[in-house]
Structure formats: C-alpha cells, structure tokens
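From the methods appendix. Each design record in this collection lists the tokenized structure first, followed by the designed amino acid sequence. Records were kept in a plain field format so they could be parsed without special tools. The example shown here is representative of the layout used throughout.

RECORD:
FOLD TOKENS (609 positions):
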C-alpha cells in the first residue's frame, strides 16, 4: 500500500464527512448526529446516519457504511488510491513523494498521456478535413452528425504510413514516446517506423479520470481485416481492465443504480444519445474479471445487452460463468437479448428509446439465464437426461464460492427440478402419476416435449399464422378457424398500437367500442384511451416510458413488433376484420381467402391476416 495508516487517518480527520455526504444527501440534525434518506436504496423515512465525531456513515436499512474513502468509492466509483488523492487535495494534505524510480516512471506516464492527447486532437481534426469525407459519410449513415462526433471525440486516421508520426515529431515528441504510447509500429525488417492506425474511424478510449489512453479503430474498407483493432498493451492501457466510456458512464450509473454493458463502440454511442448515458463496452474481447469488478464497484447488478443471435447467446454464457466464482450477496448480473439481427444501435433506430427501456426493465436475472441455458430446447424426456441436468446444475452451484449465495442457488434449482419433473400431478380417473413436462421460456414446463412460446412472441404469432394456414387448407372447423384468426388479428392490432400509439387519438371512437377477447389488448386499449383523454400527444417514446413507469412494460413486450408503411390503414383493416369475425363467427375462411387475394395483387403487399 502506498499510504500509511497515519496519513490516511490525518485525511479522515481533516475531512468534513457531513459536508462531503451532504453534497448528495439532504441531512437533518437530530442531537449530535445527522440523518437522511439512504442514497443506496429507496426509503421514505430516514435510516441513514452520518457522524463527524466518529467519521463514519451507516444505513440501518441496507447495511451500507464506511468512512470518507468508502463514500467516494461507493458513490463516485473511484478506486481507493483515487479517493485518497481526491480527498488529500481537498483538505490540503500533501501525499508522500515516491522513490526516484517511482517518480521517473510516473513522469514518463504523464508525458505519454500528453502524447496520446495530442494524437486524439490530431485524429479529431482529420475527421473534418477533406481526407475524412469517407469517415464522415460512414457516421452519417449510422445516424451521427458532427455534434455527435465532437461529443465522443471521434476522429479519422489518414491513409499512409506516417501522417501521425510527422505531426507528433513536429510537436517535439520523440520516436520512443510515440512507440511507447502505442501509436506507431517500430522499425523492423528494413522497414521504417510507421503509424499503427491508418484509414480508420477512431474511437478514443479514456481511463477512469477521462484521460485518453488508447484508441479503438474501425476500418473503412469493406474487405479490411480485422474490422476493428485497438491500441496494443502499454503502460497506460490494458484492454482487459478498462471499459469504453466508463468515465462518462460512472456518475450516471451510480445515479441509475445500474450500468449497461453493450458489445461495441457504436452501441454505446447509440445508447448514450438515446438517454442511456450509463452505457459501456468491453474493448473488443470477452469480458474479463477485472472488468467485472470494475462494473460491480459502480453498480450491484450490471445489465449485459447482447444481440439475440448465437454469438450473443455464447457471449452471455461466457459472462455468466465468469461471474459465478465472484458472486456475493447483492451482486449479480442481468441479461437482455435483443431480437435476432438487432444490436442496441439498430434496435433503438428502429424502435426508439422507449422500447429499449422496456428491454432493460425486463432484463433476465443470472439464475434464470443459467436455468434456461441448461434446459431450453433440450430433450429431457428420459430419467438419464434429467439426472444429467441435475449434475450440470450442481456443477454450476459448486463454482459459487460464497456459501450463502450458493445455498440459495442450490435451493432454487432444486425447486425448479421438483416442480418440473418430480412433482406428481393427478392422472386421468383420479390416479396420481408423474406429470409429462418440457421446458418453455421463462422456466415453465408444459405438455409434451416441445417448447411452448410465450404469448405475443414471434413464435406464438407464427403459430397463429400456421393455424390460419390450416383454415385455408380446410383442415380446421369453423369455431377453431374463427378463434385462430381472431387471435392473430388481435395480436396484429396490439402491435400496431404499440408501434404507432397515435392511432388511438385518430381512431378513439372505433377503438373504444371494439369487442376484444384478449385481456392484454383490452388493458392496452384502455390505457391508451386514458392517455388520449388526458390530452397526451401519444408520442411513441413518451407512451413507452409511461407504460414502464406504471409497471405495465409487459404489454409493450407482449405486442412488440416492427413499423409498417401505413399503420392507420392497417389498423382500420384489422378493426374491420375483427368486426366481421365478431358478427359472422363462421366466416374465417372467406376472410382469409379475400386477404390472400389482396396480397397476391401486384404492388399491394398489405395482405396481413
């Protein structure tokens, strides 16, 4: 440890803890002690105590407590040395000088910070030069203007071998420092020293104090490999222990109570611009233990937002198993899986910030992810396979080193196994026998060994469409036909209302009197009509935020969909079809045939069922 206990005690003694905590918490004096509402958990009556005399704070609700150093690490996400340095500067305590070797090493690092900062400014300027046109066009295609580029200090590294080297040497930077900062490749095999980055879009990477220490770079040539590269390991930068945008996200994450981990630079920028400023990303590799602990110092349950494809599932699985040995009371992970083919950048562009809020609000806990990973899509119809499942679950629990957390996982998994395989259900005729069960998303088992989709999921909707196909083929009776088509039409109607809620303003009268069978759609309808009656504009992002605040985010998930070209016309067709089905319960075949005829017309393309 660099600092002796005597020095630390002197800093504590000089620090006014009440004033320090009072910057974030409203405190009221009761006797010799200050009280307030705890900043670490929601409470209505104060249980958070701060004492200058003892130089400690303590919450009697959640148990959080400590001294001034702990306060800064808990509320600002600083490391312990950073907290010591900050408080020492505030109270006028001079920190001890290091050895000559330490001083030389620190001075060397300081000069490298200056070198990397010079490079960042050079790349920023180049983005707006004529040579940076291709990079600007790429950003424009991704929905980013010059203001966004300046906000995130994006840049461009010119083509050629020594544009940056020439610029830095003109600023009296030595070649040794350029190489030590990771900005150039040394001379070798008869080749002169050359720039490390060229013809790439540049993403500056900052450390915990917002100092630029490295760069991520995206190639602009379509066939370039690799597409992304980072600065190599330097005395300033280790990609396994730092996170993109961490310094900017830290304060917002502490305030939000969580931090979002996306997979790429553009995802972080899209999230931040959509209002999710507590977003970070690993630096081109799978998450490491150092990064995991950095996240946990900021928020107890980070949310990992992955693409919904096989690569995203694999990345989530790696992160889940990485976390197992380090789990402790109150600290875990949650997971968001976006639709296949979507990442946070594209999902927000297509669906808006409100839809992203819904995804984050309904993030999957770590325990549920592990259960799904071991069961979803697997044939568990034999005793041997079920025994194998129990063996795998036991191995997961055995990796958790915290005994209390491990015990809860063990009991949770045992309960799921019992409910899904060992609990005996009444058999026909009153006899009792083992229930036949299979995994379905969300941890439920039902029916024969075929997963049953959640209501409103793409799988569930496609099942309705398949039922409609049976109707067209004449393989379903009139009642079955009507129910199948009506369910599909109501799902279509719900998706239109979620995607284009302003329809409820234009069509309030017809929507209010429509006979609906789906209780979820009925609830969605009533809430939208109430909003319309209150004078709301029913703008999509605002409506989604309203539903999330009211604890009704499941309706947005239930009816999630994609934009259509003419939502109002589609809505009116869906209402007309539902009225026809309600008035003529046996006309489902005729309705489907008419819709098919419409969809087969050239240049129509609006033949929804």
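DESIGN:
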């Amino acid at each position: 440890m660099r600092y002796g206990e005597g020095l630390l005690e002197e800093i504590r003694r000089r620090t006014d803890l009440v004033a320090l905590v009072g910057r974030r918490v409203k405190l009221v004096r009761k006797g010799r002690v200050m009280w307030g509402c705890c900043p670490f958990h929601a409470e209505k009556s104060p249980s958070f105590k701060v004492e200058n005399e003892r130089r400690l704070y303590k919450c009697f609700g959640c148990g959080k407590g400590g001294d001034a150093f702990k306060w800064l690490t808990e509320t600002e996400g600083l490391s312990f040395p950073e907290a010591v340095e900050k408080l020492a500067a505030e109270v006028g305590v001079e920190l001890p000088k290091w050895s000559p070797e330490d001083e030389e090493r620190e001075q060397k690092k300081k000069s490298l910070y200056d070198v990397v900062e010079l490079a960042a400014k050079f790349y920023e300027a180049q983005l707006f030069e004529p040579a940076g046109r291709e990079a600007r066009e790429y950003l424009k295609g991704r929905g980013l203007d010059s203001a966004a580029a300046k906000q995130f200090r994006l840049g461009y590294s010119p083509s050629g071998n020594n544009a940056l080297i020439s610029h830095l040497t003109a600023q009296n930077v030595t070649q040794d420092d350029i190489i030590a900062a990771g900005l150039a490749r040394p001379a070798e095999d008869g080749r002169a020293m050359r720039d490390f980055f060229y013809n790439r879009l540049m993403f500056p990477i900052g450390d915990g104090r917002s100092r630029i220490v490295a760069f991520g770079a995206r190639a602009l040539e379509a066939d370039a490999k690799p597409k992304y590269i980072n600065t190599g390991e330097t005395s300033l930068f280790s990609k396994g222990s730092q996170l993109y945008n961490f310094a900017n996200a830290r304060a917002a994450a502490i305030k939000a109570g969580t931090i979002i981990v996306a997979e790429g630079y553009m995802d972080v920028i899209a999230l931040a611009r959509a209002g999710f400023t507590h977003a970070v990303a690993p630096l081109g590799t799978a998450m490491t233990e150092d990064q995991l602990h950095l996240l946990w110092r900021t928020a107890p349950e980070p949310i990992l937002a992955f693409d919904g494809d096989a690569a995203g599932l694999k990345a989530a699985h790696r992160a889940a198993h990485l976390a197992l040995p380090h789990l402790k009371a109150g600290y875990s992970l949650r997971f968001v899986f976006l639709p296949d083919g979507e990442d946070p950048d594209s999902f927000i562009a297509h669906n808006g910030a409100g839809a992203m809020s819904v995804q984050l609000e309904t993030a999957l806990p770590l325990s549920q992810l592990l259960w799904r990973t071991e069961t979803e899509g697997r044939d568990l119809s034999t005793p041997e396979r079920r025994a194998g499942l129990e063996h795998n679950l036991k191995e997961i629990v055995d990796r958790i080193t915290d005994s209390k957390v491990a015990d809860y996982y063990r009991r949770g998994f045992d309960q799921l196994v019992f409910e899904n395989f060992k609990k005996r259900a009444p058999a026909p005729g009153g006899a009792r026998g083992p229930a036949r069960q299979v995994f379905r998303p969300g941890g439920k088992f039902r029916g024969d060994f075929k997963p049953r989709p959640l209501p409103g999921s793409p799988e569930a909707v496609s099942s309705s469409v398949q039922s409609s196909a049976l109707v067209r083929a004449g393989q379903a009776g009139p009642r079955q036909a009507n129910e199948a088509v009506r369910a599909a039409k109501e799902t279509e109607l719900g998706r239109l209302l979620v995607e284009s809620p302003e329809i409820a303003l234009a069509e309030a009268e017809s929507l209010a009197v429509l006979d609906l069978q789906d209780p979820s759609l009925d609830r969605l309808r009533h809430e939208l009509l109430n909003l319309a009656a209150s004078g709301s504009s029913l703008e999509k992002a605002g409506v989604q935020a309203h539903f999330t605040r009211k604890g009704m985010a499941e309706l947005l998930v239930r009816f999630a969909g994609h934009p259509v070209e003419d939502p109002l016309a589609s809505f009116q067709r869906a209402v007309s079809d539902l009225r026809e089905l309600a008035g003529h319960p046996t006309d489902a075949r005729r309705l489907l045939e008419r819709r098919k005829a419409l969809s087969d017309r050239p240049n129509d393309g609006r033949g929804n069922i």
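APPENDIX NOTE: Confidence is low (pLDDT under 50) at residues 430-474, 601-609.
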